[in-house]
Amino acid sequence: MDKLVCPNCGTQIQITQALKQQLEEKIRTSEKVKYKEELEKVTAQIEAQTKKRLREELQEQLEKSDKERKSLEEKLAKEEEERGKFEKKIKEDALKNAEEEQRLRLKEKDLQLEEIRKVNEDLKRKLEQGSQQRQGEALELDLEEKLHAQFPNDEFLPIPKGIEGGDILQKIVYQGKSVGSILWETKRTKAWSNAWTAKLKEDLTRINASEAILISQVLPNNSNSFDRKDGVWIAKYEHSISIGRFVRFLLTNVAMVRSSSAHTEEEWMKIRDYMMSDAFKHRMRTHFEVIKDLNETLDAEKRTTMLRWKKQESIISKIDSNTTNFYGELKALVPQLPQIEGAEGP
């Protein structure tokens, strides 16, 4: 049999089978109680840590979502302001174009009323035949007003008798002296005619003008917005002031070179040849094409910006809805979840 030594007196005690089983049962019971206490303690710690971690993760997620929402709201507000500026610019441009068109229409109506007072029994036939002519005259009057405003020091003279191709004769005055002249003609038709430039070139020679400019709503097929054909500058109406400014600048520079003793006749001829060259024509054509491209790019950017605004509004709405749903699901699982400002709001 097994013996157990007393730790106090050293006496050996025989351990019977019953005593052994009793001691083992007591030890097992003690271990179970201790294990149960440890298990409950660990379980309580895990639950506390889990709740703390969930609260911290929730708080962090909500703070991150709130920052993202505020950032997007600020960005949207900024783009909303930009959109307001774009819309204002579009409205201003539309109003300006409408006013411009209205001015032309009013001039046409004034001409119509003037003709009505003069016509007789064939009024209807003459009005139908003269519609295209009235449009051209309205364009001519409007162009002349713009030229007067742009070049107030120049003189605008009546076209000499016998010259049918010209509409406006601009005498260029620079530093108090006449340095050249430009013969203008306007066309407001739906089709281009090659005979126009040849006829205007003849009229240019008859009145001894320096340069001729033909303003037309339509240009030859191989021309975009500006060209030089048969010795005549041609451009669309929206570029009339620009082409006038270019040609006037060249004529004043040619005059200064010719009047200066420091320059030779050869230098004057070089400037004159440059003004008539394809290089100058291509340079001016590039200028007008760049303006056209910039206008087209601006229109495309306006459309792109509108689409981007709509997309960002949708993203903000989804983020806000997702955050609210996430908080609601956690609130259902943990009713005692602390209140977070804004999480339960609309």
- H and E string: EEHHEEEHEEEHHH
Biggest beta sheet summary:
6 strands, mixed
Overall mean pLDDT score?
A: 77
Radius of gyration: 46 Å
- In total, how many beta strands? 8
Annotation field: number of helices = 6
Low-pLDDT runs of 5+ residues are none
Percent of sequence in beta strands? 5-15%
Order of neighbouring strands in the sheet with most strands:
3-4-5-6-8-7
How would you describe the overall organization of this protein?
The chain is α/β, with parallel strands linked by helices and 346 residues long. Among the domains are: 2-76; 153-302, no CATH class. It contains six helices and eight strands. The strands form two sheets. It has a six-stranded mixed sheet. A hairpin with a 2-residue loop joins β7 and β8. The protein is rod-shaped. The mean pLDDT is 77.
Brief synopsis:
It is built from 6 helices and 8 strands, in the order ββααβββαβββααα.
What attributes characterize this protein structure?
66% helix; 346 residues; six-stranded mixed sheet
Summarize the topology.
Elements: E1 2-5, E2 12-15, H1 17-116, H2 123-150, E3 155-157, E4 168-174, E5 177-187, H3 195-207, E6 211-216, E7 226-229, E8 232-235, H4 240-259, H5 265-276, H6 278-333
Parallel strand pairs: 5-6, 6-8
Antiparallel strand pairs: 1-2, 3-4, 4-5, 7-8
